[in-house]
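User: Run a structure prediction on this.
Assistant: Running it now.
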Amino acid sequence: MSRRRQTVWVALAGVAAVTLYAAFAAVQILVLNPLAAAPGLTLDEIHARMSDEGESLGPSMVLGILGAGVVLAIGVAVVAILQKSRPLVTAMCFLAVLTGGTPAYFVASFGPGMALADTFMISGADASHWALVLHLTSALSLLVAVIGAVVITLRSPAAPALA
């Protein structure tokens, strides 16, 4: 398989991975965490209680923040393909985007977490442990990106010494 074709496949896989990460983050913020924060209530009951208190999960803001990561991933894919990047470099770029998933998750979940806290008089922290999957994915992405940087460095020819 040609290097260009490999880059295209890595780019497609990268966009898919970032999209899945963002979709799972949205489900965590908008469904799983509210259900864990208010056990025994349905999602409709949670929304009704929040509405009575003048609060909302702010789904459009959550989806907008997480969607920005998907747009970034598409941009990375386009640039990698047009610049004929090496597949390993392309993969590392997507790993960097996934590493940024934890900070993006924090920003996207802050408002909904505080709205849940204000409505149900609980902590604003995640009540659902499913967020750990996202944080672990970001941490592993960072680790693999660092390993990839070492591999690229070791594969590159040595630079000439400066006099």
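DSSP finds six helices and no strands in the chain.
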